[in-house]
Amino acid sequence: MQLDSEPASRSIRVKVCGLTRVREATDCLDAGVFWIGLNFHPQSPRYVELPVARQIVAALPDRSRAVGLFVNRSPSEVSGIALELGLETIQLHGDEPPEDLAALDRFCLIRAFRLGSIADLWAMEDYLARATALGRAPDAILIDARLPGQHGGTGTLVARELLPRIPCHPRLILAGGLTPENVAQHIGQVRPWMVDVASGVESAPGRKDASRVAAFVHAVRAATPE
What we know:
Mean pLDDT is 90; it is low at 5-9. The protein is built from seven helices and ten strands. The chain has helices spanning 22-30, 50-59, 75-85, 98-103, 118-133, 183-190, 210-223, and strands at 13-17, 35-39, 66-70, 89-92, 108-115, 140-145, 172-174, 194-197, 202-204, 207-208. By secondary structure, the chain is an alpha/beta fold. An eight-stranded parallel barrel has the order 1-2-3-4-5-6-7-8, surrounded by four helices. It has a two-stranded antiparallel ribbon with strand order 9-10. It has a single domain, classed as Aldolase class I (TIM Barrel, Alpha-Beta Barrel). The two termini are 26 Å apart. Helix content is 33%, strand content 20%.
């Protein structure tokens, strides 16, 4: 998938992750969401079975609007599921090594980094340098909060003191504890290309509240400079 080149300062995208219902996925797109995320991590409360994922993707006006999220799955597993569903974009949200990016080169790749300390920032910079040296840097990077033993969707904000130290990246996706009430403040601090939300627009894990999705999109648009 060829990502657009519009600068983040002109248009901040919205990604809603952890969809488990066809209607909620299409409602998200109708509200102005750019990407919807399908979570294929079995330990997640937002895990979606393949038959349901197939129904969701089939209902979208464009398959490129769906992103597959994977945690510590082999490149062959990831590729197999993505090709079966016709997904173009993959999000790696575990401890996958840079070599996995090269193995998944045919896809648009989002690499997630969970930040809880300065050491995590250093580890991210080292990872990106290694990926670049291998010839396959991620197309976008996603910043999430680190909680031991959990891989996102926790509703926890990235530590405030780390936000100014996040390195510049043309495709920076900010996640972690965002809500309609606080997203504008965090956009002002980080100026991301995209913001990613899951629990912040839910009535229950995996169940998206249409009114909160609409409020989130509205807040992002209101915070985006003309």
